[in-house]
Amino acid sequence: MRKISITEILFVLFTxxxxxxxxxxxxxxxxxxxxxxxxxxxxxxxxxxxxxxxGHYMDLSEADLMLKHFKGSHKNWDNSLRAYLTKGLTTQNxxxxxxxxxxxxxxxxxxxxxxxxKEMPYSPTFSMDxxxxxxxxxxxxxxxxxxxxxxxxxxAKVNQILQSHITLIKxxxxxxxxxxxxxxxxxxxxxxxxxxxxSLKQDKGSTSRTKLIKLxxxxxxxxxxxxxxxxxxxxxxxxxxxxxxxxxKTHKFTIRNSDKKGYFGHKGExxxxxxxxxxxxxxxxxx
Length: 287
Known about the structure:
This protein is an alpha+beta fold. It has one domain: Cysteine proteinases (Cathepsin B, Chain A), CATH 3.90.70.10. The chain has helices spanning 6-18, 37-54, 62-71, 77-86, 102-112, 130-150, 158-171, 175-182, 186-195, 209-215, 271-277, and strands at residues 198-203, 221-228, 234-247, 252-256, 278-286.
């Protein structure tokens, strides 16, 4: 029979008090067919900290965060889309700009704020969902690659070809969402104000069950771990999700994972196997 450690006993006593009002979230999440797990984890950590500090729920827009992720330092969407399509000249993967890190996503939220989910919904139940936006952008990305390979035109015509695909992207159900991102919403300022007292901590040291349990005494954490392919081989890619709590009676962690379809191979894997592959732990700390 497995003995319960002092850390686990203290964790139970702590969570009985801190979780008395329920979970940190009152909404579900689903990234769909977009590599946006980093955005969902960043907003999830902010939402949890807000609930812990104020006692109220917050639902932030991952669509708004991902659009800011794409826009980057560009002043307008034409420049951003131009940079996105031009990358097609050097890489074959249209998803390459979808990937990111929790650190980068949190930095965007802290600097620019982020809208509420109700203002810029991500859910596929809405006609203007982010998954549709990404499908359009990927399609034009590949079409641009093909046209550049088959065109006999000089390099001087690249701008003309680029502009035609930028126009196609913006006219295919995407323009309204891009316009929404440009609006100076009060919600973004509120989120920025709240996060002015918080910083993101990263732990890149070795990971163990005991270490995770100890960190969970204070707040939910997010973990990044190497994923495996269908043959069980480790890939260079990582997936991230939030660990909300630990139950010493069942010896199981409660996780909040936006990858509902199991694209990243976590389904059927043991917790111990995933713990061994964790390379970074993220959590928010009040300054």
